[in-house]
Amino acid sequence: MSPRKLRNQLSPEALRARLEAETDPRITFSFYRYAHIEDPELFRNECYLRWTELSVFGRVYIAKEGINGQVSVPAPNFEAFRDALYSVDFMDGMRLNIAIESEAESFLKLKIKVRDKIVADGLNDETFDVTKRGRHLNAKEVNELLEDDDTIVVDMRNHYESEVGYFEGAIRPEIDNFRDLLPAVEEMLADKKDANIVMYCTGGIRCEKASAYYLHRGFPNVMMVDGGIIDYARQCQALGIESKYLGKNFVFDERLGERITEHVVAHCHQCGKPSDRQLDCANEACHILFVQCEACAEAFNDCCSTQCKEFIELPEEEQRKLKITTQFNGQRFGKALRASLVREGTARLE
């Protein structure tokens, strides 16, 4: 099979039908490992061929610096897939972060991309040692540190992730990409370099790089939640201890989130009522990610605005014509700015 064909060839409708026809439950999980990969393209193709045979779906990034994946696997194939991963030297024994809602529908196909980095961080890795990372904390250690008022907790995720769930008292910057978040957090903490700083993200990968960078920048007491929110929640359940993380954990698949606690910490962007139901606007020409309660979803037909609702009700031919000249919320505002305006009450979705 030529490399050109090592990708999905099915339509979205066929992919959906294929998933619905499955009889075995799927297990959703994430993994990552920083390592030196000599030929990422070759490794990508080998993975695609082997994993396709096991009906693996998901999104995987491969770079010379390692691998970062979020996948779902039919339960009967889980052990075979784990063995396939562990058969590669640098992935042997790698943590598999099984989702809290692991059997919920997540991916429709397998997508493996070669990138410059497995997480876009904008850093020059040659200037510091990425293997000298911050101390890893288990759930019990996290809770103990959070009892100390002098501990600084920092959310290293994008703002729309932290909007629906976060650790109590965490600093949650209004920034929508990791590249910009790194210098912003450094500036915020410039006068607190000697404090105990606990960072967290979804599964740990962003904090691995961030903690090494901040140690290099003179923050001696940088720590990270081991395994991220996913493993923290799993440890809390196993140990029967209180979760200091409240609400949902945002995930980058069709689920968009998995519930960690029953707390609802976000608000509908349209009516302001408590809600953590995140979705992409049903108008594909807009497609902005926003929070919408069930009542507003019914009133606006899963759209972010009256404009988008009226647009998707037009005949397809008219939509195609207007799409070229019409501006929607998803084009007009960046996610961080728009959500901030809505929360402050200075803008409303009309």
UniProtKB/TrEMBL annotation:
> Which keywords annotate this record?
Oxidoreductase, tRNA processing
Pfam assignment, any one: Rhodanese_C
Q: Which domain of life is it from?
A: Bacteria
Q: Which PROSITE patterns match?
A: RHODANESE_3
Give EC number(s), comma-separated. 1.14.-.-
Respond yes or no to whether keyword tRNA processing is given for this record. Answer: yes
Q: What catalytic activity is recorded?
A: uridine(34) in tRNA + AH2 + O2 = 5-hydroxyuridine(34) in tRNA + A + H2O
Q: Which GO terms describe its molecular function?
A: oxidoreductase activity, acting on paired donors, with incorporation or reduction of molecular oxygen
Domain Rhodanese, by residue range, is: 147-241
Which InterPro entries does this chain map to? Rhodanese-like_dom (IPR001763), Rhodanese-like_dom_sf (IPR036873), Rhodanese_C (IPR022111), TrhO (IPR020936), TRHO_N (IPR040503)
Bilayer-crossing regions = none
Keyword Membrane appears in the UniProt entry = no
Instruction: List the NCBIfam families hit by this protein, alphabetically.
Output: PRK00142.1-1
Q: Which family does it belong to?
A: Belongs to the TrhO family.
For this protein, the record's HAMAP family field holds: TrhO (MF_00469)
Biological role: Catalyzes oxygen-dependent 5-hydroxyuridine (ho5U) modification at position 34 in tRNAs, the first step in 5-carboxymethoxyuridine (cmo5U) biosynthesis. May be part of an alternate pathway, which is able to bypass cmo5U biogenesis in a subset of tRNAs under aerobic conditions.
Q: What is the designated name of this protein?
A: tRNA uridine(34) hydroxylase
| The species this protein was found in | Neolewinella agarilytica
Q: Which gene encodes it?
A: trhO
